[in-house]
Write a structure and sequence with these properties.
By secondary structure, the chain is an alpha+beta fold. The protein has two domains: 234 residues, 4-Layer Sandwich (Glutamine Phosphoribosylpyrophosphate, subunit 1, domain 1); 173 residues, 3-Layer(aba) Sandwich (Rossmann fold), CATH 3.40.50.2020. It has a seven-stranded antiparallel sheet with strand order 3-2-4-1-10-9-11. It has a six-stranded antiparallel sheet with strand order 5-6-7-8-12-13, covered by helices on one side. β20, α16 and β21 form a beta-alpha-beta unit.
């Protein structure tokens, strides 16, 4: 294991620096990971897949894809494309995906290149037929496994970490389920996998439950998704979370449960609660809108500011801003408005246009903040450049004071499990004190939610959450082996 960990890949092996994106634009906001969606035993599964993937669009806007199987014939079809779900799929494409089972994926690439070959589900032909693979997360030891397989003659078709599991399965002499189990046991990292053949669907969650994965029921069949909001969208009833280290096998005989690894430490990603997941989703039974409101309320208790209005940076900080306002009695106002139609237009051909990017995506409401002392609630500070731009945006329209309150502890450490963050040296909180960050972002005051306050806010009265989250980005306590001297990596 130690040899595998020592060979972590470097970040940004793809084309991003050639696309005209400034480094600040890439790194100053945490990027969504990926989203997976699966259906088993429900007619016209691809239609459910379309709506399910659309509900998960916030987790990845770069590419989308689905693979489908007809249970009676075993016929296997797939389609993938670059862009949003609504851009990739139309009725004709959906009609070309007949069947009662599908796996689907929306992708935001990080280490893997931004190209169609890396769009998921990844599709393979192997000795027993067809294989489709979709995942959310990152396999930390994928580079060493890939090097081993290549030395044994494997030829990789993509630069995605996800491909290693297909090669491990294909090289095994065991049946598919046993081969998949062995392959999963070799992986280190955070991941939620959907693996589909002509006659089986395997669903698996990493041994720490870092990446969320839930199961629902609909019309006698099963639905799997990265978030519960996707179940709601397609009308499925939430059944339960897929447990860490659990492996579900679905075929013509129904569903059976197995494990590929034991649970040693549950460590759901803290940033799912803070930022990534939609506020109408639940994780481990916790509604995210309610949790984020509690974060704002706790922040108000820890850092009360005498101000005139409270506003949140859309969209993930709105719930927390409401909580802060309720706790303090300061009016909540829409002081910042997000332009929901910018899409990927922040990729611009010149630095001058990139500098205007924050105003394309975000506008300050002059009549709300002019002449006011403003408390600006945000979920995190990564590099600090976007925070500076938003603070200055509020000042430009007449805010007399801008106080910044962050609903997480200082983000000091890189993520190895599927979140796109820069190396530690580029994280402003790892290099500067809180006062130095305040000066850097031009705020009148700056406050972060405490470590204990965050844990209590997420769990409410449930003390189990003291042991239930990965907080490594705040406290450097990683739930799996990582090599801190290597550059971090993450890819779906």
């Amino acid at each position: 294991m130690s040899d595998e960990i020592k060979q972590l890949p470097k970040l940004w092996t793809g084309d991003h620096y050639n696309e005209g994106i400034g480094r600040d634009d890439i790194f100053d906001k945490l990027r969504e990971e990926c989203g997976v969606f699966g259906v088993f035993g429900i007619p016209d599964a691809c239609s459910l897949g379309y709506y399910g993937l659309h509900a998960l669009q916030h987790r990845g806007e770069e590419s989308a894809g689905m693979a489908a199987v007809e249970s009676d014939s075993g016929k296997f079809t797939h389609y993938r494309g670059m862009g949003l779900v609504k851009e990739v799929f139309d009725q004709q494409k959906l009609d070309g995906l007949p069947g009662d089972r599908i796996i689907g994926h929306v992708r935001y690439s990080t280490a893997g290149e931004s190209k169609l070959a890396n769009a998921q589900p990844l599709i393979f032909k192997y000795r027993d037929g067809d294989l489709a693979v979709a995942t959310n997360g990152n396999i930390v030891n994928a580079p060493s496994i890939r090097k081993e397989l290549e030395s044994q003659g494997s030829i990789f078709q993509t630069s995605s970490d996800t491909e290693v599991i297909a090669h491990l399965i294909a090289r095994s002499s065991k049946d598919f389920v046993s081969a998949a189990k062995d392959a999963l046991q070799r992986l280190i990292g955070g991941f939620a996998f959907l693996l589909m053949t002509n006659d089986k669907l395997v669903v698996a969650s990493d041994p720490n439950g870092l990446r969320p994965l839930v199961m629902g029921r609909l019309a006698g069949g099963y639905v799997f998704a990265s978030e519960t909001c996707a179940l709601e969208t397609c009308g499925a009833e939430y059944e339960r979370d897929v447990q860490p280290g659990e492996m579900l096998i679905l075929d013509r005989d129904g569903l059976r449960q197995d494990r590929f690894d034991k649970l040693e430490r549950r460590a759901t990603c803290a940033m799912e609660y803070i930022y990534f997941a939609r506020p109408d989703s639940d994780i481990n039974g916790i509604n995210l809108h309610s949790a984020r409101k509690r974060m704002g309320q706790r922040l108000a208790l820890e850092a009360f500011i005498d101000a005139d209005v409270v506003t949140g940076v859309p969209d993930s900080s709105i719930s927390a801003a409401i909580g802060y306002a309720e706790q303090t009695g300061i009016p909540y106002e829409l002081g910042l408005i997000k332009n929901k139609y910018t899409g990927r237009t922040f990729i611009q051909p010149s630095q001058e246009l990139r500098e205007k990017g924050v105003k394309m995506k975000l506008s300050a409401v002059r009549k709300v903040v002019e002449g006011k002392r403003v408390v600006m609630i945000d979920d995190s500070i990564v590099r600090g450049t976007t925070s500076l731009r938003i603070v200055n945006l509020l000042r430009e329209v007449g805010a007399t004071e801008v106080h910044v309150c962050i609903t997480s502890p200082p983000f000091k450490n890189p993520c190895y499990y599927g979140i796109d963050t820069p190396d530690r040296k580029e994280l402003i909180a790892s290099q500067k004190t809180v006062e130095e960050i305040r000066l850097a972002i031009n705020a009148d005051s700056l406050h972060f939610l405490s470590h204990d306050g965050f844990i209590e806010a997420v769990g409410g009265n449930d003390g189990e959450y003291n042991r239930g989250m990965c907080l490594a980005c705040f406290d450097n306590d990683y739930p799996t082996p990582v090599d801190p001297t290597s550059e971090k990596s993450c890819s779906c």
